[in-house]
Backbone:
């Protein structure tokens, strides 16, 4: 009996101890650890914020629906040619920032699908692309297809098509392809202006021979410049959307999409020291993509509008020097003599605060805003000068100093077919700059004789076959009836005298 009672007493003590321990834990939580409760009004407000946020709350973290919709619209791109090192994309590599179109790969010569002796060609690169129209228009990066002699587009359903290059724009690293197909799934454009930092996004690529990939992340920053589109003419546009969605080799040209399945950017570069993803990726915003693609479809090349200014970011030191109370705006360092800004009354030393009512607080933001326009468009520019804000109307011009839309290369009256180049007379300000008469090369066709010889766009021709040429008529007269080779003499953009031998 005693042993039995002893057992019951022990059990009771154990239960009492457990009860007291639980009670003590509950009291500790209630009085010391429990967070301050929201009022019903605060709770309703918070729930509404989550429901209405574009990036969604925890309930939005199921990406399966979006992924199912967008993956059929992203394609794999393979390029072929004779030069294994071809393509400007290879020139964009440096220690910190690399593109990710993938390493050059050799063709599998065992495959025979009857496509133009593909087994005799070298594989240049591979990447991704996005179908943006049901009749076969595909967006990708310029560096994915640059230098290619043949481009193959493979759909998500494994069908392959020979693609035609409609046009490309190195200043934004975008290109437009066309395949002969109908009723294709396509991705609609979203508004990248509405993208918020912290918003959930998906990076969608088709990098390695018909293998689709989808990764998720958030928008880390907007308006980023990483100096991978450096150009001598200063026309490179960098205002990237930065994300932490994982992207790796072969994703170049793929889609950055919001949770509505809309295209908000074209994935272009990653920040890396190894060539693999290490935390950040960068996409061209859809506000630029849609405009560039429309231009390439309608005109064959981008209609680039320019203010005609040299600018730099406003730093705290510069703001203090200018006796400004706020670090706001973009500083105008200089003006192009024939540019739109000078004609509108903008001066060196002005601060540009807004364009069409939109604040611009960095060089990338200003470039992105202007890049959405075409020559001839009028924009309202808010400037700060001498302690006052002024509103100016600026009619934007192209790089030739005109407000005209640039025609397709082959349709231009200044196109020299035998050279594959558009050449125009120097303007008065250019004659003053170079201290000579002559002509400037403004555009070069793929396969151009001048391009093959290494003559760049912007080169000033002063002599042909040792004869001075001051205008297009004299240039054509010297070329008339000639065959074989000619000697072209002129000036580079930094005014160095150069000589080139050209085969006609």
Residues:
């Amino acid at each position: 009996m005693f042993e039995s009672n002893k057992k019951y007493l022990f059990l009771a003590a154990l239960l009492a101890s457990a009860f007291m321990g639980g009670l003590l834990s509950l009291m500790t939580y209630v009085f010391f650890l429990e967070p301050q409760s929201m009022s019903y009004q605060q709770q309703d407000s918070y729930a509404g914020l989550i429901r209405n946020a574009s990036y969604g709350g925890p309930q939005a973290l199921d990406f399966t629906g979006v992924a199912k919709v967008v993956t059929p619209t992203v394609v794999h791109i393979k390029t072929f040619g004779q030069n294994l090192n071809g393509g400007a994309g290879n020139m964009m590599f440096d220690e910190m920032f690399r593109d990710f179109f993938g390493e050059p790969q050799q063709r599998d010569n065992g495959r025979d699908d009857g496509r133009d002796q593909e087994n005799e060609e070298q594989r240049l690169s591979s990447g991704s692309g996005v179908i943006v129209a049901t009749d076969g228009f595909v967006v990708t990066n310029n560096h994915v297809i640059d230098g290619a002699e043949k481009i193959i587009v493979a759909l998500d359903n494994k069908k392959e098509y020979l693609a035609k290059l409609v046009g490309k724009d190195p200043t934004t690293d975008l290109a437009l392809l066309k395949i002969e197909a109908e009723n294709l799934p396509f991705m609609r454009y979203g508004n990248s202006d509405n993208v918020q930092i912290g918003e959930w996004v998906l990076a969608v690529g088709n990098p390695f021979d018909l293998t689709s990939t989808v990764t998720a992340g958030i928008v880390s920053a907007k308006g980023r410049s990483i100096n991978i589109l450096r150009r001598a003419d200063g026309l490179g546009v960098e205002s990237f959307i930065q994300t932490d969605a994982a992207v790796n080799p072969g994703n170049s040209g793929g889609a950055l999409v919001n949770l509505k399945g809309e295209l908000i950017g074209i994935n272009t570069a990653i920040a890396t020291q190894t060539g693999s993803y290490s935390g950040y990726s960068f996409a061209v915003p859809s506000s630029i993509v849609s405009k560039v693609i429309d231009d390439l479809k309608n005109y064959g090349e981008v209609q680039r509008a320019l203010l005609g200014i040299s600018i730099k970011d406003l730093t705290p030191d510069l703001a203090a020097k200018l006796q400004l109370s706020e670090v706001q705006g973009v500083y105008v360092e200089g003006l192009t003599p024939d540019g739109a800004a000078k004609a509108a009354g903008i001066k060196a030393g002005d601060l540009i605060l807004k364009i069409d009512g939109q604040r611009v607080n960095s060089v990338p933001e200003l470039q992105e805003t202007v890049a959405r326009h075409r020559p001839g468009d009028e924009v309202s520019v808010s400037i700060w000068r001498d302690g006052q804000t002024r509103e100016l109307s600026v009619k934007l011009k192209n790089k030739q100093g005109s407000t005209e839309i640039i025609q397709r290369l082959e349709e231009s009256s200044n196109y020299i077919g035998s050279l594959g180049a558009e050449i125009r007379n120097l303007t008065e300000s250019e004659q003053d700059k170079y201290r000579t008469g002559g002509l400037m090369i403004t555009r070069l066709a793929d396969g151009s004789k001048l391009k093959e010889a290494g003559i760049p766009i912007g080169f000033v021709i002063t002599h042909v076959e040792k004869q001075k040429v001051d205008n297009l008529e004299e240039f054509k007269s010297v070329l008339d009836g000639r065959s074989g080779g000619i000697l072209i003499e002129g000036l580079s953009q930094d005014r160095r005298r150069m000589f080139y031998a050209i085969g006609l």
About this structure: Residues 309-395 form a domain with the Pdz3 Domain fold (CATH 2.30.42.10). The mean pLDDT is 80. The chain is about 20% helix and 30% strand.
